[in-house]
Amino acid sequence: MKTLVTDSIDEAAAIIRRGGIVAFPTETVYGLGANVFDEGAVARVFEAKGRPADNPLIVHVSDIEQIDTLVNHITKRASTLIDAFFPGPLTLVLGRSTLVPDIVAASLDTVAIRMPANPTARSLIAAAEKPLVAPSANLSGRPSPTTWQAVLEDLDGRIDGILRAERCSIGIESTVVDVSNEPPMILRPGAITHDQLQRIMPDILNVSDGDDRSRHSPGTRHRHYSPLARVVLVTPDDALPDGTDAFIGITKRPDLPKFAVVCKDASDYAARLFEFFRECDRSGLSHIACERVDDDGIGAALMDRLRRAAE
Ligand code: TXA
Ligand code: MG
Question: I want to staple 188 with a disulfide (CB 3.0 to 4.6 A). Which of 3, 144, 176, 253 is the partner?
Fold first, then answer.
């Protein structure tokens, strides 16, 4: 299969309307899009990524009205969070409507919904005239792509097209909140922070608070990306382990290895992390040190991804 790289939203949308699968930018990471109601196209998304069939997909919408066809009921909780954070880097898990194919939701009775803030993403969904499933556009087990080139690196010859655009501004995946059960629970930390959510919904829980609903967060069961390299987490006071050949963090320390990325702050660090991991793999670097950050704000999501990479 030839993978077309295009700058044209109309051309990308036409491929999707014909049953194709096309990667596109969002503010978090690039997604691999297909018409949610086209089971054949959705099956090809799983196949192209090498994604296990028991890990459900997020459905992306361009306007609020589209949500009605996908869920059985928009609860009060959901509508509060939609008003506050859509469009943006927040995904809501709700009761699934019978119109959503089983393959999308891995046969769960819930479905995950997100309305991206990125205008290119929303224009594409609108032009495709259907909500789009879109997992991150990487091979399973690799870091999520934050550039169109990273998508091409993983999926060239496996998908129909890539809608080429700028680097993703946030760089880590959306916050996933389950509102299908009481009380609501954050299943995956992301750019919409625990504090922001708690201000609006004081009783919201974190999956780490110990409720066994974490069993129902399928993504957390699967092996997560860790680079080929060994990843260790360090503080600014730790000496870097002997043989460290790459570093990313926010402190300009005296013992930086030759390949070092020093970021402005935690947001900048989050935006650059996945591309840094890919660069280390491309260069065959084998010992990576990542600086720990404060576990609040965007730092909570960043630390979540860093801990998984270091596992
Ligand atoms: O920022 C993002 O969310 C990106 C962009 C492309 O929108 N997408 C993304 O998709 O990260 P993916 O497939 O890589 O991650 C989806 C996460 C997985 O952890 C999956 O298990 C969870 O959402 N998820 C999807 N449907 C679910 C459901 N019904 N219940 C619980 N978790 C669900
Ligand atoms: Mg993913």
Answer: 176
Sign of the CA dihedral running 174, 202, 218, 141: positive
Cα(104) to centroid(ligand 1), Å: 11
Residues with CB under 6 A from ligand 1: 26, 28-29, 31, 55-58, 91, 93, 105, 108, 110-112, 114, 134-136, 173-174, 176, 187-188, 217-219
Give tens-digit pLDDT for 75-112: 999 999 999 999 999 999 999 999 999 999 999 999 99
3 state SS of 55: coil
Contact of 308 with 177, CB cutoff 8 Å: no
What residue owns the CA closest to ligand 1's atom 24? 56
Beta bridge partners of 114: 60, 91
Amino acid in position 197: L
List, for residues 210-219, the tens digit of each pLDDT value.
656 554 566 6
Quick count: other Cβ atoms within 10 Å of Cβ 171? 26
Q: Which ligand is nearest to the CA of 55?
A: 1
Secondary structure of residue 188 in the 3-state scheme: strand
Lookup: tokens for 89:
């880097």
Contact status, residue 51 vs residue 167, Cβ threshold 8 Å: no
Q: How many residues does the chain have?
A: 311
Q: Which residues surround ligand 2, an ion (CB under 5 A)?
A: 136
